[in-house]
């Protein structure tokens, strides 16, 4: 069933990039995901991984700081899927260990047909390594990006989205991305918001065995989906909020990604506003919810000149275009209100 789904979906568009200026232009102008073939072919880590998984691990360990790493370890029978169990707990354990110990466990299962999935997710390159990022990085121009490394065995990560823009570079192994536009969230059957495998709500659909009786609208999502099969040296650009299901397909896989926002850092997180709205508005009587929907449209989504035209410009405060100072006032007000 899984191969039928992935085989029938269209492939994402592909480009090649010849210069940092060309990459900058693509990242500024592109509004949909795209595969960038060979973007990081020259990385020493990519070259080590092409020799073997063991060579890649040896190269990575040489740069690792002597710190405990957080690692997720699943069950051998999970097929690499790091997800919920039957009671909506997690079907994996979260442990801490030094990187050589973790890599020794990966090496021990590398040639076995069935082995527990082992996954190090979103490890901050600057905090946990010395020199690794400097030797293996993408020039993102003036963007201030968080650079992270993801390492592990064969894994399946449920469809989710991220608020920042994402440039994900495959350094070792192969990865498959299955992507959907932002507005397809209703057809992906999202799970809990506050109890998630990795901080973001995920699709409850098993892409390797979709239950169309239980999730019939997933067929609609598939009509908008696309697939990208990446090998070492390739990258994919994922604009903010696009949904993506990610699989590591080889016994050892490494991905380096960059997250950044085009909006100022001092702006709040939209997910926090959604969570607060669920707390404050969702369970109100319908007539009151209609009022608050109108208020959100007035102050947030429409936000036209009529909101402030009758208020002297110097007195518009947080109704004026946001600044670091007015953002700080709102944040302080919220902290006081939430602490009562």
**CATH arch. level architecture of the largest domain:** Sandwich
Percent of residues in helices:
25-40%
Beta-strand content: 15-25%
Number of strands: 14
Instruction: Please write the string of helix (H) and strand (E) elements.
Output: HEHEHHEEEHEHHEEEEHEEEEHHH
CATH class of the largest domain: Mainly Beta
The backbone outline, from C-alpha atoms, is globular
Kindly report how far apart the N and C termini lie.
Answer: 52 Å
Number of helical segments with 4 or more residues: 11
Question: CATH homologous superfamily of the largest domain, by name?
Answer: Jelly Rolls
Could you say what the CATH topology of the largest domain is called? Jelly Rolls
Please render the helix and strand layout as text.
Layout (H helix, E strand, L loop, with lengths): L1 H7 L5 E2 L4 H10 L4 E3 L7 H8 L1 H11 L4 E7 L6 E2 L9 E7 H11 L8 E7 H4 L3 H4 L10 E7 L2 E6 L4 E8 L1 E7 L37 H5 L3 E6 L3 E4 L4 E6 L4 E8 L9 H11 L5 H17 L21 H15 L2
Parallel strand pairs: 1-2, 4-8
Antiparallel strand pairs: 2-12, 3-5, 3-6, 6-7, 7-14, 8-13, 9-12, 9-14, 10-11, 10-13
Helix pairs in contact: 3-4, 4-5
3D architecture notes:
The N and C termini lie far apart (52 Å). By secondary structure, the chain is an alpha+beta fold. It folds into two domains: 2-260, Sandwich (Jelly Rolls), CATH 2.60.120; 270-338, no CATH class. It is globular. It contains eleven helices and 14 strands. Strand 1 (14-15), helix 2 and strand 2 form a beta-alpha-beta unit. Strands 1-2-12-9-14-7-6-3-5 form a nine-stranded mixed β-sheet. Strands 4-8-13-10-11 form a five-stranded mixed β-sheet, with no helix packed on it. The protein has helices at residues 2-8, 20-29, 44-51, 53-63, 99-109, 125-128, 132-135, 218-222, 270-280, 286-302, 324-338; strands at 14-15, 34-36, 68-74, 81-82, 92-98, 118-124, 146-152, 155-160, 165-172, 174-180, 226-231, 235-238, 243-248, 253-260. The model has no long low-confidence stretch (mean pLDDT 96).
